[in-house]
Amino acid sequence: MADTVADVHQHEAHGHDDHHHDQSWLEKYVFSTDHKIIGMQYMFTGIFMAVIGGYMAYVFRMQLAFPGISVPGFGQVSPGEYNALITNHGTIMIFWVAMPVLIAAFGNFLIPLMIGADDMVFPRINRLSFQIFFLSSIVLLGSLFVEGGGFGGAWTSYPPLSANGDYNQTQLGASLWLIAVALEFVAFLLGGINFITTLMNSRAPGMKAYDIPLVCWMIVIASILFMLSVGPLLAGAVMLLFDQTLGTGFYDPARGGDPILWQHLFWFFGHPEVYVVLLPAIGITVEVMATFARKKIFGYKLVLYTAVATGVLSFFVWAHHQFIAGIDPRMANVFTITTLLISVPIAEMLFVMIATLYGGSIRLTTPMLWALAFMAEFLIGGVTGIFLGASGADIYFHDTYFVLAHFHYTFFPIAIIGSFCAFTYWFPKMFGKMMNDTLGKIHFWGTVIPFNFIFIPLFVLGMGGQHRRIYNFQHFPQIAGPEYFQLRELATIALLVMLAFQLVFFYNVISSWMRGEKAGKNPWKANTLEWTTESPAPHGNWPVDELPTVYRGPYEYGHPDREEDYWPQNLPN
Amino acid sequence: MNSESATYPTARPTRGEPIIPSGVLGMMIFIFTEIMFFSGLISAHTIVKSQAAGQMWPPYGQPRLPIEETALNSLALLVSGMVLVFTWFAFKRDSGQARIPLMLSIVLGSIFVGFQGTEWVALLADGLTMQSSAYGGFFYLIVGSHAIHAVGALVALMWTYDRLNKDMLRSSQLATVSAFWYFVVLLWPILYWQVYL
Asked: Taking CB atoms and an 8 Å limit, are B43 and A232 in contact across chains?
């Protein structure tokens, strides 16, 4: 703690005097304190981890569809490896892809630019945050190659399986996995402190609370949720780590401990976590929709208040993950009600999106397509969630492929579609070049159509009662009907198609970056402050004496008194 | 200025001083997270305690915690927190006057941590370890987490003392570090009530 406090003040003392001296390559791109560079570092680490997570999905989907084959690029999958793959796929995609890309990368990149600040309030804490995150990635990837293999107790890591090396057979892998997750939380904790403080204290002159772009609000509300929910999980993780390494008995019933305790501590964090990643994705989507529908967001305050309401409610829904863990049925009733209630604010946000689109002059650019796809796909995820939130139905659906498909129908739109939406929208600001729209659209359709072909079959499998953690269904003849195998094969082939189309994305990014059309300051004719500076923005974001001043809200499109259909926030009139 | 400016006011207030200095605000957010961390530990402890076999707490064969000695020791911590309040007012009047109360606060805090250490040594000798029971595990986990925070806060206070001696301490710095020490001090009675009583 002393270090970070010292850090803060040394920075405050130096201010930004040291902005314009010559920096070496290392200073500029590796040990930078510039929020844009740190955002990029988070982004590229996140993309790298996404590739690994996607590779894992490929390997275990191949094993499920064609049990026992030698998977090209991996080889035969043993049961232990299968468990390690699904566990780390889940962990990576949530904690090393969704969180760093949606919150850390876009939060770092966008918040100072959109509120007219030259940098974060604590730039060196920000750098420390990324360094800890990077370390945590290395620890996680390292845990896959230690003796005994990677941890295979599912991303929820329930004890007693996770607490005892005799049970999970991956003593070292389990501990390293846990340490990696804990380090990652510390990294986001430092990042979150920065986001909240920056939004409170560094806004451009004239920017009042309701002039802040919604995406900044959403990232900050998500950070607050994360801050409030992560403590109990860290406490639980310390206890689990002690159980694993020191031989304590916190989760061991034989010694007076309680294994269900972990589930409560985990899901007390785990459910707000869903909204921690959902809110930034919604913020990104409404931002893009306002720009490309050329319309003011319908109900700015409504979105803001429902986001807060969602945040509050999300702390009272966690036990819907534990309906069959032996909790009191009366408690299950309460949690059913709160869970169904939380669909109200989310539905409200989707209605706001529809109302924003209604009557707008819609331009179907690549980011807009992603935003619309987010709405459509997330809706399916949300509606299927109702069945799982109701304790009666959940007892049947629990731990089947239905849960898995529901979960992916929420997280894929959030983490993948939301990130692509933001990436394609802010690409001109990040790299100063326009992305190729045709390739962007090919990539879009090549991702969204196969996505539905992967997970709709899994809904059907789940309703057929297929359990989600089975390594080889041939070992269970009573549930291994041929029609189920065909559905599994369909899902796997769709996955292969989807992964193949990601090559288009990488090609598009590299080719657009190298020889794309120059973007100019404001290619989308948007209102928010980040479009008033050069693309890419220089160190310090604006020239020192030209920091913007704000005169109005961020979504003044199509104002009747103006010739142009947009009205940037920084123009006096 | 054209006629539009009457309809759409263009003048907005400029950026003033933030209501809460950034350092203090960051520390407050951090403290909220810490409060949730300790709530997690306390609720886990409460659940396990309520489920103990035969409602025996401490469980059979485990030593009783030194309630009285610790109560006395807690007093040192509370007084240290109060002295830090005086430090703040003294600093506001004249930074030189803050030196003695700040040192006193650090010394009292160190006495608390040191005494807790000797208590641990005695308890370990009596057979209370992290592995001996969930009771022992929770005792060392919760009290140990607090001790780590106390040591961290003391180091930060020593850093402020050093800055004060060099006459480089600013009030926002003192406020930030003090906020963390107040958290450590005020948390302790709750932990004492939950773990010892």
From this structure: yes
Instruction: Give A 418-447 residues with CB within 8 A of chain B.
Output: none
Chain A residues lying within 8 Å of B135, measured CB to CB: 256
Full DSSP string of A553-566: -TT-BS-TT-SSSB
Other CB atoms within 10 A of residue A244 CB = 23
B22 vs A229: CB contact, 8 Å cut-off? Answer: no
State the virtual CA torsion across A411, A415, A416, A419 in degrees, nearest 10.
150
Q: What is the pLDDT of residues B55-65, one digit of tens each?
A: 777 887 788 88
Task: Give me the residue spans of the domains in chain A.
Answer: 32-546
How many angstroms separate the CA of residue B107 from the nearest CA in chain A? 18
CB-based contact A8 B26, cutoff 8 Å: yes
Q: Decide if B178 is inside a domain.
A: yes
Contact B131 A258 (CB under 8 A): no
Give pLDDT, residue B13.
Answer: 53
Q: Do B40 and A121 touch (CB under 8 A)?
A: no
In a domain, B34, yes or no: no
Report the gap between the CA of A514 and the closest CA in chain B (Å). Answer: 40
The DSSP secondary-structure symbol of A410 reads H
- Write down the pLDDT at residue B14: 57
Q: Which residues of A touch B148 (CB under 8 A)?
A: none
Chain segment B150-192, per-residue pLDDT in tens: 999 999 999 999 999 998 888 889 999 999 999 999 999 999 9
B37·A232 Cβ contact <8 A: yes
pTM here is 0.91
B25/A201 Cβ within 8 A:
yes
For chains A and B, count residue pairs whose Cβ atoms are closer than 8 Å: 166
* Positions of chain A with pLDDT lower than 70, given as ranges: 1-22
Confidence of residue B7 (pLDDT cuts 50, 70, 90): very low
| Non-local CB neighbours of A549 within 8 Å, separated by 6+ positions | A116, A204, A205, A206, A570, B12, B14
Q: CATH homologous superfamily of domain A32-546?
A: Cytochrome c oxidase-like, subunit I domain (1.20.210.10)
Give yes or no for residue B116 having a pLDDT over 60.
Answer: yes
Give per-residue pLDDT as tens, A429-467. 999 999 999 999 999 999 999 999 999 999 999 998 899
Segment A29-33 long-range contacts (CB within 8 Å, at least 24 positions apart): A31/A127, A32/A127, A33/A119, A33/A123, A33/A124, A33/A126, A33/A127
Cβ atoms of A352 and A297 within 8 Å: the answer is yes
Q: Please report, for residues A91, A150, A175, A468, B147, the alpha-carbon distance to residue A171 in angstroms, rounded to integers and kept in the order given.
A: 18, 9, 7, 24, 29
Residue B15: the pLDDT is 62
Q: CA quadruple B25, B29, B34, B36: dihedral positive or negative?
A: positive
Domain extent for B134: 72-197
Residue B134 lies in a domain: yes
Domains: count for chain B: 1
Please give the Cα distance from A384 to A406 (Å, whole number): 6
What confidence score (pLDDT) does residue B55 get?
75
Task: Give the per-residue pLDDT at A21.
Answer: 56
CATH of the domain at B110: 1.20.120.80
ipTM: 0.89
Orientation angle between helical segments B22-50 and A214-245, nearest 10 degrees: 40
Question: Which residue in A343, A357, A415, A355 sits closest to A47, CA to CA?
Answer: A415
Enumerate the residues of chain B whose CB falls inside 8 A of the CB of residue A231: 33-40
User: Chain A 145-184, CB below 8 Å of chain B: which residues?
Assistant: none
**Each residue of A225-281: pLDDT tens digit?**
999 999 999 999 999 999 999 989 899 888 888 899 999 999 999 999 999 999 999
Q: Is residue B80 part of a domain?
A: yes
